[in-house]
Amino acid sequence: MSRATKRDRAVNVTDGGLLKPLLVLSLPIVLTNLLQVGYNLADTFWVGRLGQPAVAALSYSWAIIFLIISFSIGFSVAGTVLVAQNKGAGNLDRVSHVAAQTITVIVGMSLLFSVIGFALAPELLRLVGAAPGTEEYRMALEYTRTEFLGLTLIFGFFVFQSLLQGWGDTRTPFYLMAFGVGLNVLIDPFFVLGFEGNVLFSWLGLENLEATLYAATGFAGFGVQGAAIATVLSRAAGAFIGMWLLLSGRVGIELSLSEFKPDWETIEQIFTIGVPASIEVSTKALSVTILTALVAITGSEAVAAYGIGSRVTSMVILPALGLARGVETVVGQNLGAGQVDRAKRGVFAAVAVITGCLLAFSLGVHLFAESIIGVFITGVDAGTVTGIGAEYLRIVGASYVFLGVFYVVQGGFRGSGSTRLAMGFAFVGFIVFSALFAYVFAVRLGLGAIGIWYGEATANVLMAVLAGAYFLRGTWAGSVIEREDDGADREYGAHSSAEPVSEGD
């Protein structure tokens, strides 16, 4: 198999300087994640033209969809770790095999979740506080079920991204995500608003064209469900292109159809790493679900504000998430190559970078909180939602640095294969601390929604302190694979000289 081709964009993270390759590896992940949030923000923006009930419906739906998608992301971590450590150790014959097995596992899981999620959507929405019979519930149910129907396609891109990340190529997934987001942004307003009251036509001065199209078709959009349809179609395009790239060998990893046959030993290894990682990633989504249910007690305006505020937070924290995924690859490949000290230095470098970055972001969010929230809501009760959302950004925003450090340290744990350790810290932080403090401040102390905001901020600080203290002990650094003896495959490993692509290409 052609391990090093002109299209192989993998970054060398096991030799030479460390900070530059870490940033070169992480920046495309940050941009990819930014585009991922672009999906959500585009949906929120266009759905926001429908008013507060539609935005609240989206918030209820995402509390569920985010939780399910997190399972895929968690199992994709297994693919990242196994690809990275096998490449660092020079076990190149194993890379394509574990990649194909990871895809097999995730596709099978997505089909199962799709069926179960579609059937249980009404009950799941009730659990997060959506009241049956309301307009918010009806719209949320349509959106949620549409997303579940396209779940396999949504999962498909995440596994493609994770496999290439473990290989050291983060630019190709970025290019593919950019294509998907561009397509989504292009079709979103038409699926949501159709040809009636679509502000896009007003912005472009094409009101007459809109009137003509509406007269000819009578199409007024699918409303909230239209955002889900646009997202699924965009994901479908990305998933099919990603699979073609892997099967064609154009991205360094080259798969064959025979490698997709289930290998139960490898699948067991994927589950050993992936189950804790899925639980870890899902804890944040579950935390959002729990907090959404608590916020629902204080009113639908607060739910809409939390939905917008949490999306803004997810965008601001993207540099930390990108660096954390980059750290996974740096730690994984260096531990596979037996370079433990270099793996640790990669985490320290990422912590220093994210601290400076998020300090600046926190200041900006604090100064422009109302303006940021106001972009995503219009109509009745928009002023109330904006005020509540601005309080969220100012309170939670003060803890962004701690949340960022926590994510980066967790990336180090995952890269070593210590996914159970990462799971433990995530559960304590996002579930125990977040839910406990939010409940105490909001309900016991009677602070309402603002108490939930303080609870979330307090949890962010405490979990960063705990994870950071354990990281400094250094007992987490290990490897989940065995290194092969030096041989023919070794020349393509961590010290490959077979036409590697330079970091600047």
Question: What this model shows, in words?
Answer:
The chain has 505 residues and is an all-alpha fold. It contains 18 helices and no strands. Helix 2 (52-89) runs parallel beside helix 12, helix 4 (135-149) packs parallel to helix 9 (224-248) and helix 15 (382-397) packs parallel to helix 18 (449-471). The chain is globular and about 65 Å long.
Helix content: over 70%
Report low-confidence residues grouped into runs of 5 or more. 1-6, 485-505
Described by strand count, sense and barrel closure, the largest sheet is:
none
Individual helix count = 18
- Give average pLDDT, whole number: 83
Taken in chain order, the helices and strands follow as: HHHHHHHHHHHHHHHHHH
Number of strands: 0
Radius of gyration: 23 Å
- Quickly give the structural class: mainly alpha
Termini Cα gap: 22 Å
- Shape label: globular
Strand content: under 5%
Q: Secondary structure elements and their pairing?
A:
Blueprint: H1 19-48, H2 52-89, H3 92-127, H4 135-149, H5 151-167, H6 171-193, H7 199-203, H8 207-217, H9 224-248, H10 264-297, H11 300-316, H12 318-336, H13 340-367, H14 369-374, H15 382-397, H16 400-415, H17 419-444, H18 449-471
Helix pairs in contact: 1-2, 1-6, 1-9, 1-11, 1-12, 2-3, 2-4, 2-5, 2-10, 2-11, 2-12, 3-4, 3-5, 3-10, 4-9, 5-6, 5-9, 6-9, 10-11, 10-17, 11-15, 12-13, 12-16, 13-15, 13-16, 15-18, 16-17, 16-18, 17-18
What structural keywords apply?
76% helix, mainly alpha, disordered C terminus
What's a quick, concise take on this entry?
The protein has 505 residues and is mainly alpha-helical. It has helices at 19-48, 52-89, 92-127, 135-149, 151-167, 171-193, 199-203, 207-217, 224-248, 264-297, 300-316, 318-336, 340-367, 369-374, 382-397, 400-415, 419-444, 449-471. The radius of gyration is 23 Å and the shape is globular.
